[in-house]
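step: validate -> pass
step: tokenize input -> pass
step: predict -> running
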Amino acid sequence: MTAYLHDGTEFDLDRTYVDVVGVEWSWTGEWTEAGEPLMRGGECATLVPLPDVYRDHGPLIPVTVGVPAGLRAAVLAAESPLAVDLAAGYAESLEQYTARTAAAKPAPVPMVPAAVRRGFFARLAQAVAR
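step: predict -> pass
step: emit ->
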């Protein structure tokens, strides 16, 4: 990671950033004489110092790099309740697992009837008015 601190914000220059109108800005690997990183935005050939990009086009939002589908599936599968139970020694089918865990779900909380809510708020309003 090549870090650059500007205006209290640390920028990882190895990442691509997007400005408020959707232009992607990347560090060129070059610096100004003042020690500011030079950025290239979109198809423009002009290099612009990061502080100028931040002032004129900011805020700059780091572009999120996607996670490969295989890695995502492996992580999610490793943390799924079924995978955890199988790792703990349960040997059952998906149907048996679903039947066993369905009973463990908490019962839904009943909603308070509107008449009770109205009565409560009416009493509260009367108490506040006193």
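step: describe -> The mean pLDDT is 79.
step: cleanup -> pass
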